[in-house]
Amino acid sequence: MAVIETTGLTKRFGGQDTPAVLDGIDLSIDAGEVFGYLGPNGAGKTTTIRMLLGLMRPSEGQVRVFGEDPAADDALRARLGVLLENSGLDDRMTAFESLHYHARLYGLPNPGTKIDDLLDFVGLRDHRNSRVGTFSTGMKRKLGLARSIVHDPEILFLDEPSAGLDPEAQLMVRELLQELAVTKNMTVFLNSHHLDEVERLCTRIAILHRGRLRADDTVANLCGGARERRVQVRLSTQEQALRAVKALDALGLSGELQEDGATMLAACNGRSTPEIVELLVREGLGIEAVTRPIRSIEEVYFEIIRDEAADA
Ligand SMILES: Nc1ncnc2c1ncn2[C@@H]1O[C@H](COP(=O)(O)OP(=O)(O)OP(=O)(O)O)[C@@H](O)[C@H]1O
Ligand SMILES: [Mg+2]
């Protein structure tokens, strides 16, 4: 069942004549999904989260969270957790007080033990009684994350949770999110510029660019089901690899030598992998291995962003 749904979601900051920041976005996210929302600076990721939380009204289109309009249904908020770019923590409170205050806002009775468990969970137990004002960026982020889940939300919205964090803290945030998704089956909506983090964490990824969704699919489909299919063939010698490139060239297929000299990457151009292999075997070439290269999310991202830049 979809817990987040948008249809034709459009946002303009100004009148009808101003260009739409978001232009007809359709999203459907199921319970338990870890959804990665990517796009360049200014693409509209934070704006999308704001509308999903009911903090901002769409110019056109519809937003539904658990089937309800989040702007009209205050009760919905208790089921949502949020960590925005600016965590808005009060510097004068201690870590414990900060979480306690938030827990009380959600009406949790006697949250003390739970808060200590959460401080453990995010690695801030030793700083339980330190003031937030003395915390580093990473410590504040960890506390913000603890605060966003103190009331056991069903959906967690995260706006760049690992921005500005050192590699160790990034790893910690990633492990925390993995644990939340797996053990608590929380639905996670993650805005991020860390493509590698998104690739490791997310079950599904959407890429937003120039107001529209340019991709929305599972990581496996995005990285494996290349638009342009390619096959990588390792030959027994460098000389054979060169011959393979020439043989493909002669047939109007492009082959490219890889750095190791003995591997060749061929664009399939409508031919199947067995057909390519057969062509090479017919040339009498010694094939050692045939693989289909999997692209990283980073490659997919740049392909989409560059493509769209060329279209514009
Ligand atoms: N309150 C606002 N008033 C006017 N314009 C706004 C407002 N909020 C956002 N925008 C504009 O909408 C666009 C999208 O902004 P948004 O913050 O959603 O981008 P983003 O994808 O989160 O970017 P980043 O990766 O830099 O965080 C930007 O051009 C921004 O200037
Ligand atoms: Mg943003």
Tell me about this structure.
This protein is 35% helix and 24% strand. The chain is of the alpha/beta class and 312 residues long. It folds into 2 domains: 223 residues, 3-Layer(aba) Sandwich (Rossmann fold), CATH 3.40.50.300; 62 residues, Peptidase S8 propeptide/proteinase inhibitor I9 (Alpha-Beta Plaits). The chain has a 6-stranded mixed beta sheet, sandwiched between helices. The chain has a 4-stranded antiparallel beta sheet with strand order 11-12-10-13, with helices on one face. A 3-stranded antiparallel beta sheet has the order 2-1-4, with helices on one face. Helix 5 links the parallel strand 6 and strand 7. Helix 2 packs across helix 3. It is elongated and about 75 Å long. The mean pLDDT is 90. Magnesium ion binds next to helix 1.
